[in-house]
Design brief:
Layout (H helix, E strand, L loop, with lengths): L2 E5 L2 E3 L5 E8 L6 E8 L6 E6 L5 E3 L7 E6 L4 E6 L8 E9 L5 E3 L3 E5 L2
Parallel strand pairs: 2-11
Antiparallel strand pairs: 1-3, 3-8, 4-5, 4-9, 5-6, 7-8, 9-10, 9-11
Length: 117
Protein backbone atom coordinates (compact mmCIF):
# COMPACT_ATOMS: atom_id res chain seq x y z
CA UNK A 1 0.00 0.00 0.00
CA UNK A 2 1.36 3.37 -1.03
CA UNK A 3 1.40 6.15 1.52
CA UNK A 4 2.66 9.71 1.46
CA UNK A 5 2.56 11.41 4.84
CA UNK A 6 3.29 15.11 5.20
CA UNK A 7 4.35 16.77 8.43
CA UNK A 8 5.80 20.04 9.67
CA UNK A 9 2.97 22.44 9.03
CA UNK A 10 1.76 24.95 11.56
CA UNK A 11 1.26 28.59 12.42
CA UNK A 12 4.14 30.97 11.80
CA UNK A 13 4.53 34.73 11.78
CA UNK A 14 5.31 36.62 8.58
CA UNK A 15 9.02 36.40 7.85
CA UNK A 16 9.30 33.09 9.66
CA UNK A 17 10.34 29.67 8.44
CA UNK A 18 8.94 26.16 8.35
CA UNK A 19 10.26 22.87 7.07
CA UNK A 20 7.78 20.41 5.62
CA UNK A 21 8.54 16.73 5.25
CA UNK A 22 6.85 14.04 3.22
CA UNK A 23 7.62 10.40 3.97
CA UNK A 24 6.80 7.78 1.35
CA UNK A 25 6.21 4.08 1.69
CA UNK A 26 5.16 1.36 -0.73
CA UNK A 27 6.95 2.79 -3.77
CA UNK A 28 10.40 2.64 -5.34
CA UNK A 29 11.09 6.22 -4.33
CA UNK A 30 13.84 6.92 -6.85
CA UNK A 31 11.43 6.09 -9.72
CA UNK A 32 9.31 9.12 -8.88
CA UNK A 33 9.39 12.83 -9.38
CA UNK A 34 8.32 14.53 -6.16
CA UNK A 35 6.07 17.56 -6.25
CA UNK A 36 4.85 20.03 -3.65
CA UNK A 37 1.46 21.62 -4.28
CA UNK A 38 -0.56 24.04 -2.22
CA UNK A 39 -4.20 25.03 -2.07
CA UNK A 40 -5.33 28.24 -0.44
CA UNK A 41 -8.95 28.75 0.62
CA UNK A 42 -11.13 29.46 -2.40
CA UNK A 43 -8.29 28.90 -4.85
CA UNK A 44 -7.19 26.12 -7.15
CA UNK A 45 -4.42 23.78 -6.13
CA UNK A 46 -1.14 25.00 -7.59
CA UNK A 47 2.24 23.42 -8.17
CA UNK A 48 4.89 25.03 -5.99
CA UNK A 49 7.97 23.00 -6.86
CA UNK A 50 9.15 19.65 -8.06
CA UNK A 51 12.37 17.70 -7.83
CA UNK A 52 13.40 14.95 -10.20
CA UNK A 53 15.00 11.77 -8.95
CA UNK A 54 18.55 12.99 -9.50
CA UNK A 55 17.93 16.54 -8.35
CA UNK A 56 16.69 18.68 -11.26
CA UNK A 57 14.38 21.24 -9.69
CA UNK A 58 11.66 23.67 -10.71
CA UNK A 59 10.05 26.45 -8.63
CA UNK A 60 7.04 28.61 -9.29
CA UNK A 61 8.11 32.25 -9.53
CA UNK A 62 6.34 33.31 -6.34
CA UNK A 63 8.57 31.12 -4.14
CA UNK A 64 11.93 31.40 -5.92
CA UNK A 65 14.63 32.44 -3.50
CA UNK A 66 12.45 31.64 -0.47
CA UNK A 67 11.65 27.92 -0.74
CA UNK A 68 14.08 25.05 -1.18
CA UNK A 69 13.08 21.51 -2.11
CA UNK A 70 15.28 18.51 -1.44
CA UNK A 71 14.96 14.74 -1.30
CA UNK A 72 16.64 11.84 0.41
CA UNK A 73 16.16 8.76 -1.74
CA UNK A 74 17.59 6.48 0.95
CA UNK A 75 15.08 7.70 3.55
CA UNK A 76 12.26 8.01 1.00
CA UNK A 77 11.58 11.54 2.09
CA UNK A 78 11.14 14.88 0.36
CA UNK A 79 11.44 18.22 2.13
CA UNK A 80 10.32 21.77 1.58
CA UNK A 81 12.26 24.41 3.47
CA UNK A 82 10.23 27.61 3.48
CA UNK A 83 11.72 30.92 4.56
CA UNK A 84 10.58 34.54 4.50
CA UNK A 85 7.02 33.30 4.70
CA UNK A 86 4.23 35.65 3.70
CA UNK A 87 0.50 35.59 4.50
CA UNK A 88 -0.03 34.67 0.83
CA UNK A 89 1.77 31.37 1.50
CA UNK A 90 -1.08 30.27 3.76
CA UNK A 91 -2.47 27.05 2.30
CA UNK A 92 -2.70 23.32 2.69
CA UNK A 93 0.52 21.87 1.30
CA UNK A 94 0.47 18.49 -0.42
CA UNK A 95 3.22 16.25 -1.67
CA UNK A 96 2.71 14.18 -4.78
CA UNK A 97 4.79 11.36 -6.24
CA UNK A 98 4.69 11.04 -10.04
CA UNK A 99 6.16 7.96 -11.70
CA UNK A 100 8.79 8.97 -14.24
CA UNK A 101 7.45 6.47 -16.82
CA UNK A 102 3.84 7.55 -16.43
CA UNK A 103 2.73 4.63 -14.27
CA UNK A 104 0.59 6.71 -11.97
CA UNK A 105 0.82 9.20 -9.15
CA UNK A 106 0.04 9.42 -5.47
CA UNK A 107 -0.94 12.25 -3.12
CA UNK A 108 -0.45 12.87 0.54
CA UNK A 109 -3.23 14.06 2.81
CA UNK A 110 -1.85 17.57 3.18
CA UNK A 111 -0.51 19.72 5.99
CA UNK A 112 -1.79 23.17 6.92
CA UNK A 113 0.55 26.14 6.82
CA UNK A 114 -0.78 29.39 8.24
CA UNK A 115 1.25 32.59 8.08
CA UNK A 116 -0.24 35.21 10.32
CA UNK A 117 0.70 37.68 13.04
Amino acid sequence: QVQLVESGGGLVQPGGSLRLSCAASGIIFSDYRLDWYRQAPGKQRELVTFIMRYGSIHYVDSVKGRFTVSRDNAKKEVYLQMTSLEPEDTAVYYCRAVHIAGRGDYWGQGTQVTVSS
